[in-house]
Structures are given as structure tokens and as C-alpha cells.
Amino acid sequence: MIESESPRLSAIFHALGDPTRRDMIRDLAKGERSVGDLAAPHDISLAAASKHVKALESAGLIRREIRWRTHVCHLNAEALAAAHDWLDSYRRFWTDRLDNLEDLLRQEKKAQHPKGDAK
Questions:
Q1: Residue 34 phi/psi, 5° resolution?
Q2: All domains of the chain, ordered by start, with CATH?
Q3: Does residue 70 carry a pLDDT above 60?
Q4: Interatomic CA distance for residues 53 and 62, integer angstroms
Q5: C-alpha angle 11/73/36, rounded to 5°?
Q6: Burial level of 23, CB count in 10 A (0-12/13-18/19+)?
Q7: Which helix (H) or strand (E) holds 64?
Q8: Residue 59 dihedral angles phi and psi, to the nearest 5°
Q9: CA distance 119 to 16
Q10: How many C-beta neighbours within 10 Å does residue 6 have?
Q11: In angstroms, what CA-CA distances link 29 with 12, 26, 41?
Q12: Alpha helix locations (H) across the chain?
């Protein structure tokens, strides 16, 4: 499991904390996009889009290649897996807690209504 104090994990969650960058990740999940393509759905300049791309790139969420004068971005899904693994540990934690609560409620219900008692 990835450690919660990992600088990489912090960078990933920082990058994902911005809705524009999350939209860019969603678009990249459909295939490669240029920085201009990533900027198009948003009311932002190409320079602002480039800053978002740099944040995603420094977090390891995307990789960028230069084709002539066009910067083309690709999703790096492995970095998302690190965030998923960290979140999944809490999903397991809460699933276990809710299962325990369900067991306790069933035991309480049985104790309150033994077989043969009117409900």
C-alpha cells in the first residue's frame, strides 16, 4: 500500500483537486489530446491550460510529447492507481465497520424478538 505521506500521492491529490484538471484527465481517458484540445472546453487561455498540464505532468498523471509545435498529452493511468490504492484502503475500512454494525444490529434484533415472541 502507498504511504499517506508520500510526496507523489500528495502531488496526485493536489492535481486532482482542481475541477479543470479532473476534466482534462477525463478527456485524456478517451485518448491523446493536444494542450489546445484540453483547453477548448474551458474558458481559459492556452497559457492557463499549459499550467494545468504542467501540474498533471509533475504529479505523474500524464506525459507530454512534442510533435513539431504541438504538445500532445497522454494519460498515465498507473499514477491514478496509486491514488485508487490509497482510497481503497479506506473503502475496506468502512466496509468492515459497516459489516460489524450490521452484525450487531442483527444480534440486537434477535435478542429483542426471540423466536415465538410477537413482533
A1: -80, 165
A2: 7-78 (1.10.10.10)
A3: yes
A4: 8
A5: 110
A6: middle
A7: strand 62-67
A8: -80, -10
A9: 51
A10: 12
A11: 16, 5, 15
A12: 7-16, 19-28, 35-39, 46-58, 77-112
pLDDT digits (tens, 9 = 90+) for 13-65: 999 999 999 999 999 999 999 999 999 999 999 999 999 999 999 999 999 99
Residues in CB range of 105: below 8 A, 6 or more apart: none
Q: Which triple of cell numbers denotes residue 103?
A: 452484525
Residue whose cell numbers read 490509497: 86
- Pairwise CA distance, residues 67 & 62, whole Å: 16
> Which pLDDT score, from 0 to 100, does residue 58 have?
94
The C-alpha cell that represents 116 in the structure block: 415465538
- The C-alpha atoms of residue 58 and residue 80 are separated, in whole angstroms, by 13
Q: Which amino acid is at 104?
A: L
Whether the CB-CB separation of 72 and 111 falls below 8 Å is answered with no
Question: 3-state DSSP call for residue 57?
Answer: helix
Cell reading at 30: 478517451
Residue 1 has pLDDT above 50, yes or no: no
